[in-house]
Amino acid sequence: MIRSDFTLKNDDGIEVYVYKWSPDAGVLPRGVVQIAHGMAEHAGRYGRFADFLANNGYIVYANDHRGHGRTAGDPEAAGYLGRDGFFGMARDMKLLTDRIKAEEPDLPLYLFGHSMGSFLAQYYITKWGGGLKGVILSGSNLQKGPVLKAGIIIAGLQRLLLGDRKRSKLLNSLSFDSFNKRFRPVRTPFDWLSRDTAEVDRYVADPYCGAVFTTSFFHDFFKGLDGLYDKAALEAIPKDLPVLILSGDMDPVGGFGKGPRLLEKLYHSLGLLDVTLKLYTDGRHEMLNEINRDEVMKDILGWLGKYERLL
After folding, report:
1. How far is CA 153 from CA 3, 136, 160, 292, in A?
2. pLDDT of 310
3. Quick check: 216 and 159 in contact, CB under 8 A?
4. In whole angstroms, what is the distance from residue 15 CA to residue 34 CA?
5. Homologous superfamily of 2-308 in CATH?
6. pTM flag (> 0.70)
């Protein structure tokens, strides 16, 4: 496996940090996987998954979103994304896609999005899905309704009163504090991520993980979520785009399996021809960091290989 990181300057002049993992020299690549990581984490946490894919013939690219990881720079800067945060992150993903297409024009490209990255991926496929061979949505949900509308109002008021850069403990609490309830008694505020205590402890110890994000982030993120299920946007998803939805059935982000099932139902209702749902018994939010992660990675590899055979 070969690591070769680089940066891309986005439309706001931000240097977006990109990790790249490639198969060993002399190995003929099978395809490319682009990863979009979740909120309050970074792409470096996907190294084990990327190593696995590279060792099985896939090139992997993963950028730190604006306001995250090495793109943010100082951990103290994590959580502020600048203007138009949600759609800015999506544009950065497309910027990376364009780089990938320039470097590997003949290889099939798959998009893997986890958690916040899965919502970005849901948006991405309404705009640029035609350039993908498939999309994987990990730790996702169908996120809409009156609770989200209320969140937009609260976040907007906080942004107006406190300013764009103020970290919102209120919105952080409203968004995440309930996630641990099913797992009491708990050791940390992040037990909902995984049953693997060592993985949870690595998250807690990581200076780029777990930050309280800003009012502007929450406001832009909630507004972005609110537009995901616009009828015209959904109709733009290519009907022949394969979709894999994977989640733990004890993931609070997905409502303990309810959200992924609703997402599967939505995509079927749109006429998408190839939608697969995989729910893992007792799995929590980060299936790539769960105690059965080897099973999960092998399932993903098998799904990718299915479409490789159809090329």
Report:
1. 43, 31, 11, 39
2. 53
3. yes
4. 18
5. Alpha/Beta hydrolase fold, catalytic domain (3.40.50.1820)
6. yes
